[in-house]
Each structure stands twice: as structure tokens, then as C-alpha cells.
Amino acid sequence: MTKFPENFLWGAATSAPQSEGAQYEAGRTPSTWDVWFEKEPERFHDGVGPADTTKMYEHYATDAKLMSDIKMNSFRTSISWNRLLPDGETLNKEAVAYYRDCFQTLKDEGVEPIVNLFHFDMPWWLMELGGWENRASVTYFANYARNAFEQFGDLVNYWTTFNEPIVHVQCGYLGNDHWPQVYDFKRAIQVGYHTILAHSAAVQAFKAGKYQGEIGIILNLSPVYARSESEADQLARLNSEVLHIKSFLEPTVLGHFPAHLIRLLQDNDLLPNREEGDAELVKAGVVDFLGVNYYQPIRVQAVEPQAVRKPAVSPADFARHYDWPEKRMNVYRGWEIYPEGIYDIAMMIKADYHNVPWFISENGMGVADEERFIDETGIVQDDYRIEFIEDHLKQALRAINEGANCFGYHLWTFIDCWSWLNAYKNRYGFYRYDLETGARTPKKSAFWIRDVIANNSLEF
Predict the structure, then answer these.
(1) In-domain check, residue 344
(2) Quick one: DSSP state of residue 53?
(3) pLDDT in tens, the chain (460 residues)
(4) 0.70 cut: is pTM over it?
């Protein structure tokens, strides 16, 4: 079949910190990104910081109409925690008015808002208390979630707690691409553990409040492939899978942590600090659906025995990257292009995770210097993006036809948006964003996806 299921969610995704703008307007307080830019502007591409977004705060009505123009029926964004609760406690009425009008405007244009609570933007007031390392973050997040549900629950049918929670663990506590830029495996595990508890506390609050709709989480699920069938390479694959994929997938869908992960952490003195009742809280965090972000697979090989450190100080002590010689690359982002990964993810979810409903919540191709591809009509001829999307949609259809419970596809992103340390280095959108004028211009891919959505099918 070339048809997608009825009521398939077609759309795109962004986040509040990457699109809203209005950095310190209407009561919003700083996030880690705002403060980091003030401290080290040289770390940000071309010195472009979080104030220079696509300014959706001002232009959401226009943007909603542009979504409708290409027949999008859904759009995923996030709420800024530090806009809604600037000090963690006080509800910001201006923020409530903005989000209510934004979500209602989307709905009036036939675009279903899918609303995420946390997209890497830790409020600075909480970071000063230790951020996710501080157990109090669980209570603060649950309170934030409850406020969001109470204020917008009548407008939102799809909620998610976190976007790619493994990323703020890996990039902030096992690297320097997120604040606080430290490398400490033990602290990273604690941050991940508190994040899962925070997710579960929010889900628990949602279900206790009997709000309309459903609640899920957005995970970057990359299939893990081993260099060979050897026992050592297969163990590396298992280690990588439980650390990078199943560490969040298993508790949020099955209500418990993988046994192999617990053994790895225990054997290396990496178990997080826990409290009585935590296991019950994790069970309460089982989701109604998953968002699946997919860009590239993970390829691994065994660690040479002489290179293994015990106790481990890095995930690289359990598995090492394998450079597959047959790979196809997006050279601008440095990521492998492997559409078949979508099918393999779908089959894993079907076989091991109760075929929980899920949608492709991010997928996309970032390309630098797209002005090279602007034709005489002013349109970016992004055939490479069309090919990328089509190849991945074919794999999604293949999985759906084999019983996968996939209910949507969202491109990253709707309009080229500001991207953390990379600013506008790579462009991802259906619409081109002019940094000088703020104009939004459809690319060739926008017209192409409009026709795909209108037919709810691929022709191939």
C-alpha cells in the first residue's frame, strides 16, 4: 500500500527556545542558553545567540497560516518553563495568554498542537540549584507540568514531557555542547535518573488530573548495528543499546529499567542515588505514545581489551564507534543517511514494546549555504531534502504495512530555526528564513509535501 493511515499526523517540529524569541519580554527569565551566550558568545556560530530566533512569539498567526497553506494538520513545539513560571512558582499571566492564543490559532487553522514541556532549556534559577543533579528538580518539574496541564489542557490533546532526554545527559555531563559542560559519568547517570523521575512525576500528575488527550515522551531512537556477528561486537551492541536507547525507552514504555543496564552500572559503581518509592514512581510514568526522533543509526564495535577501564569512566568503555565503509553521508551535518533505520526501529517497537503507538517526531536534513540552490523565482530547489524525506517515508510505509503502529511524520523543522551552538549554519525547514528581513519563503519541499499530505500517500 502507498496510502498512509487515516488521520495520519503530517507536520513539523520546533521548540520554544529555538523559535519564540522575545528573550526577556513579558516576564520571561533566563535559561542556561541565555546565560551561556552572555558568558561565552564565541562558542556560538557567527556569534548568533538565543535572542535571534524566528520570532514566533510575534508571528505565530502568520506561521499558523503558512502551515495550513501546505496542508500540515499538526505542529510540535514546546512551552518555555522560564516563561510560564519565571521564578519556578509564580504563574506568568502574559505567558498563559500567549500560549492559549497560539494554540487556539493553530487549531483554528486546522493544525493540532503537540506540546512538549522540556526541550533542553533549563531555567537558570534551577541550574543555580544544581539543575537535574538536584533531586528537587523532580518536584519543580512536576509543578511546572501541572500548571501547564491546568492552563492549556482544554486546548491540547497530545502532550510530551521531554525531547531527547538522553541529549542533555550526554552533551552536558559527558561533553561540552550543553551547559554545564562537564565530563563525569557518575553525575551523568544521576542526571538521567532524575530526568526519568521528573518525567514519571509529570505523567502521574497528568493522569491524576484526568486531563483530556494523551501523554508521551520524545526519544531519539537510533537502531544499533554491530561491526560483526562476533561475541565481542554483539556485546558492544547490547551495551550501547541499553545505555543510549533503552535506558529511557524501557522505563517510559515498560515501567522498569533494563536488567543489563542495572548490571553494567552496578559492576562499575555507577548506580544513581535512589529513594524508597522510586520504582513505583517509574511504573507510574508509562506513556500513552512515543515520539521517535530519527536522523542516523549507531554503529559500534568491541573495545580492545587493553583499552577497557574498570570502573568505567565513559560510555566508550563499553562500546566504540564503528565507521561503516559503505555509509552514505550528509556531509554538512556529519551524519549517516540510513532510511532503513526507521523500519528497524518500528519492528523493535512492535516486537518488544507492545507496539505502542508512535510517530516520527523529528527527521530531517540540515544543509549549509542553501542560497546556492535558489532559482530565478526565489525558491530553494531542495531536491536533496525531498529525496531524504521520501526515502524515510517509504520505510515508514513498509513498517506500517507490516503492522507498525505509526501515526504521523514531522519534519525538523517548519521554518529554518536557530540551533543551539550552530545558529543558522545548517538549514532544515520547509520554509526559508531570511535573517535580515524575517521573511518566510516556501522551498520546493514545501510544495512537494503539500501534495503528499493532500493525497495522504506516496507515489512510487
Answers:
(1) yes
(2) S
(3) 699 999 999 999 999 999 999 999 999 999 999 999 999 999 999 999 999 999 999 999 999 999 999 999 999 999 999 999 999 999 999 999 999 999 999 999 999 999 999 999 999 999 999 999 999 999 999 999 999 999 999 999 999 999 999 999 999 999 999 999 999 999 999 999 999 999 999 999 999 999 999 999 999 999 999 999 999 999 999 999 999 999 999 999 999 999 999 999 999 999 999 999 999 999 999 999 999 999 999 999 999 999 999 999 999 999 999 999 999 999 999 999 999 999 999 999 999 999 999 999 999 999 999 999 999 999 999 999 999 999 999 999 999 999 999 999 999 999 999 999 999 999 999 999 999 999 999 999 999 999 999 999 998 7
(4) yes
| Sheet strands side by side (includes 320-321) | 224-226, 298-301, 320-321
Residue 70 per-residue DSSP state: T
Residue 267's nearest CA partner among 194, 232, 317, 231 is 317
Contacts of 330 (CB under 8 A, 6+ apart): 336, 337, 365, 366, 367, 388
Q: What share of the chain is helix, strand, coil (3-state, %, to 5)?
A: 45, 20, 40
Residue 366 amino acid letter:
G
Residue 110 domain boundaries: 9-455
Domain-embedded: residue 3: no
Whether residue 337 lies inside any domain: the answer is yes
Where on the phi/psi map is residue 6: left (φ > 0), alpha (ψ -120 to 50), or beta? beta
- The verdict on whether 371 is a catalytic residue reads no
In the chain, the number of structural domains is 1
The catalytically annotated residue of 20, 109, 112, 164 is: 164
Q: Which amino acid is at 322?
A: Y
Query: In one letter, which amino acid is 171?
Result: C
Q: What is the dihedral of CA 139, 140, 145, 151, to 10 degrees?
A: 120
CATH (domain of 312):
3.20.20.80
Catalytic choice (112, 133, 336, 362):
362
From 274, 376, 394, 384, select the one nearest 340 (Cα to Cα).
394
Question: How far, CA to CA in Å, does 43 sit from each of 33, 181, 314, 351?
Answer: 11, 12, 24, 43
Set of cell numbers at residue 365: 536534513
The three cell numbers locating residue 193: 535518573
Assign 130 to helix, strand or coil: coil
Asked if 133 is an active-site residue, the reply is: no
- Does a structural domain hold residue 460? no
